């Protein structure tokens, strides 16, 4: 109930933004629009304020930007390999949605909300337990796996598959990650346009009031939607301490 | 009480209508009236710890039309996990860190919270009697936790003696006054020793807890510059949860401050003189035989004594008259969380006889599985109790061993369907990659805090 009104609210502000219909029809993420939320289209910029180019991303590097809210971190990764396409996923409440695939020339660039759906662990400027772990990495979440290449929360050891739309692979999480839907334009520039899948933004806003005060001033400011552009930094420049098990 | 079918439907309608009202925190009196008749989808949960809170939330998340009532004897939630950092006096850990009200999650998820003590369970009538009235159920969930078995461990102690030792040497595995009393004693203590007696035998809540406590209390002695040591009177000869990791940390961080005695049998406590008397055996074999002639009788002075008796299951499983093992833990129907005796009774948390460690995270894990099994049962669907098994890292448990800087050790458990017919956990104690070859690290110290913060979000958000 609270969640729905929250979505309704954000929906209102998002709807106020004019979105070219083509952008939506080309990427109909869930056939009935369920669990897909558009937001103001945000351009991803580098530290100097220049548009970030998709072809310049370092493969398997964690790139952090806040979207769709000022205080909700997302992580973008160029996996270096194409993702799977049209992956059917299911939220805990039974709603199905479809991951269309990565973007970029190889279809290898993805972004996910960096808020663990299990207990909302996420990167902060002080430290992070949440990250994309490169394929040659090792994690206790998947002790028998030959390679990693997963989004990982090291607090309670949940792992998610970025090639399958953030689907839960192991650990105590029950749902997958919310996908940040990206688009790359003809100039190789990257835009964030929406969120697909069950997000936890509402609970997140309730849970971290002291943290918001520390980093953003207050909850009201933290909750604001990002406008026009978002600055992208690597995770090692975003969090002082990256903790990974 | 027999009920007409028509009435049942009528009631189901009422209950479903009630379920859409967002905030259903009700006073115990009205709750008793509302829940007096089962709706067909009425679930009563006994116990508001990690298992019960998770169960209540998960059931409402999975099906809003289920009528859920959570009965808990305490008015305030208090966590046992992470409480050793409170005893150790770590920065910014207060009672508020460990406690929470019950109203917020009940209101948010739309279940009834009733503060009452269960006094009887009638499985034939499907009714739970409490100090705040009767509650009818279609499915009963028991998450009652543990009790202490002073009587079994010290048969020569009478009730008065047990009561005086329980209060003078608080066990502090069941949060509440026990923790506050132990903390008060530490704050008030003079120079001298702290004695910790881990449960002498059998399954007990949070296996690493007494050893983490030893580290945290040693940290306290050190920071408060108290002249004394932590004496651990154990029976396990060093073979306890995360043993190698604890011993490494104790030696590195608290050289000489933790005096671990591995083959002891506590026989008496004089709470007036603050003396504990125990037999010290030379090895595991003689301890097991228990012949006092093989042992040295020792009497030690203490300033603070944390005597944790042997655990048993809460008496609630006996009240329900379901099949249990000797210590009262509920026997389960195969790999499920359903009672072996009654398909309408589920048991979660420390009260189950599955061979998985009794921890907060395990209780959450089990309650989620059990909630899925209950919802399947209500809708007449089959549920595979082996689904998702083996589950890697189903349990992750951190123990804080250092206070300045904060450092912790960890264990992960894989849970699987054991050939013996029950769920079984297999532990793995890794050396974290930021530990420079040690079992402990600062990263795991941070992870301990984040683990607990996350668990609280899980239970109360």
Short description:
The complex is a heterodimer of chains A (245) and B (461). Chain A has one domain (2-242): Rieske Iron-sulfur Protein (3-layer Sandwich), CATH 2.102.10.10.
Description:
The complex is a heterodimer of chains A (245) and B (461). Chain A has helices spanning 2-15, 21-26, 201-207, 209-216, 219-223, 235-238; strands at residues 36-45, 63-66, 73-78, 87-90, 96-99, 109-113, 127-128, 130-133, 150-153, 158-161, 167-170, 179-184, 190-196, 229-231, 233-234, 241-242. Chain A has 245 residues and is of the alpha+beta class. Chain A has a single domain, classed as 3-layer Sandwich (Rieske Iron-sulfur Protein), CATH 2.102.10.10. In chain A, strands 12-13-1-14 form a four-stranded mixed sheet. Chain A has a four-stranded antiparallel sheet with strand order 6-3-2-15. Chain B is built from 15 helices and 22 strands. Chain B has helices at residues 5-19, 28-34, 50-62, 83-87, 95-98, 103-109, 150-153, 159-168, 177-188, 209-223, 243-253, 284-289, 316-319, 360-378, 442-460; strands at 42-46, 67-72, 76-78, 99-101, 112-115, 118-122, 127-130, 133-136, 139-142, 146-148, 194-197, 230-233, 258-261, 264-270, 275-280, 296-301, 304-307, 311-313, 345-347, 391-403, 406-417, 423-428. In chain B, helix 10 links the parallel strand 11 and strand 12. The longest helix of chain B is centred in the last third of the chain and has 19 residues, at 360-378. The two termini of chain B are 37 Å apart. Chain A binds chain B through residues 1-2, 92-93, 118-121, 127, 129, 140-144, 154-157, 170-172, 174, 203, 206-207, 241, 243-245, and chain B through 22, 61-62, 108, 361, 364-365, 368, 391-394, 396, 410, 412, 414, 428, 430, 432-434, 443-444, 446-447, 450-451, 453-455, 457-458, 461.
What characteristics describe this protein?
heterodimer, A: 245 residues, alpha+beta, Rieske Iron-sulfur Protein, four-stranded mixed sheet, four-stranded antiparallel sheet, 6 helices, B: 461 residues, alpha/beta, FAD/NAD(P)-binding domain, 2 domains, five-stranded parallel sheet, four-stranded parallel sheet, 25% strand, disordered N terminus
